[in-house]
Specification:
Order of helices and strands: EEHHEEEHHHHHHH
Strand order of the largest sheet: 1-4-5-3-2
Radius of gyration: 24 Å
Shape: globular
Number of strands: 5
Largest sheet: 5 strands, mixed
């Protein structure tokens, strides 16, 4: 049987805009615990270590120089590789046989994309736009943005895709979920339950973070593993994992978000009320102290 290879993503990482056997279920409606920097689930005892290569098409370009100044390319690729494998695979997982990953820095439109090399699908190439790197602002965000893009693209070198039948939004959402778990979410990202669950990128990434929190560590790894086992059929895929259709899970996510927002607004109101009361008490106390002092002097 031929080995699956991840779907090429010619427009994998978008320019930023301002602004997983069934899993034991927690009680209905319970929310996730955390989104970022969570402890990885039990990982494989030995992680693959593919060859890591760097190809710079124009060493004089500002973007290439910026990247080589901001990060150590070898260390960045190694960190991304090991981080992706820790979050997507467990001790019982079958990991794709990726043999090498080459980071190609070149002047191109967009941000980045990942594809198989001319050799075969086991040799991956991450193409990163030097023009995009040069334009990252503010300069203090350049390192984290580069690492975030590399984590996202590295997922495409290792994830399963249901033999090419998985929704593109799910594929991209898993990639941004791993980026989120790595701690490289950019400041303009936000959680929303508007539109469809499979809109992709951080939109789907935060939905997967909700599922990870609700059903426990290793949830997204099991989603990825299920994408290895056969073709994707939405009506069977999600109930097989969670006992509910994805539309229902998406509704639950929206309800959780609304409760979260209401609780945050309540905390803000209580804090403001408390500060107001504190100021009033302070003023009254001050006046009282003035009267007492005056009386003592008399």
């Amino acid at each position: 049987m031929p080995q699956q290879t991840p779907v090429p993503a010619p427009t994998s990482t978008p320019s930023p805009t301002p602004t997983p056997t069934p899993i034991p279920r927690r009680p209905h409606g319970s929310g996730p615990t955390t989104d970022t920097m969570s402890r990885p689930h039990k990982r494989p005892p030995t992680l693959p270590r593919p060859k890591l290569r760097l190809e710079v098409r124009d060493l004089r370009s500002r973007g290439a120089q910026d990247l080589l100044t901001a990060v150590n390319a070898g260390e960045a690729l190694e960190e991304a590789t090991q981080g992706v494998l820790r979050h997507l695979y467990t001790a019982d997982s079958r990991i794709p046989g990726t043999r090498s990953v080459t980071l190609v820095l070149e002047d191109m439109q967009g941000v980045a994309y990942t594809t198989g090399s001319e050799l075969d699908g086991d040799h991956k190439e991450i193409h990163l736009s030097t023009a995009y790197v040069a334009g990252i602002a503010p300069a203090g965000r350049k390192r984290d943005e580069i690492l975030g893009v590399l984590w996202h693209e590295m997922v495409h070198c290792w994830q399963w895709n249901a033999w090419g039948t998985a929704p593109g939004g799910l594929i991209e959402g898993i990639a941004d979920w791993v980026r989120l778990r790595g701690g490289y979410a950019p400041p303009h990202w936000s959680r929303t339950a508007d539109g469809d669950w499979d809109a992709g990128y951080q939109h789907t990434g935060y939905f997967l973070a909700y599922l990870e929190g609700r059903f426990g560590d290793g949830t997204v790894a099991r989603v990825n593993e299920a994408l290895r086992e056969g073709r994707y059929e939405e009506g069977a895929f999600w109930p097989g994992l969670f006992g509910a259709r994805v539309a229902r899970l998406w509704e639950d996510y929206g309800e959780w978000l609304r409760r979260r927002e209401e609780e945050e607004e309540l905390v803000v109101v209580e804090r403001e009320d408390g500060e107001g009361e504190g100021e009033g008490k302070g003023e009254g106390k001050g006046k009282g102290e003035g009267k007492d002092t005056s009386a003592e002097r008399k």
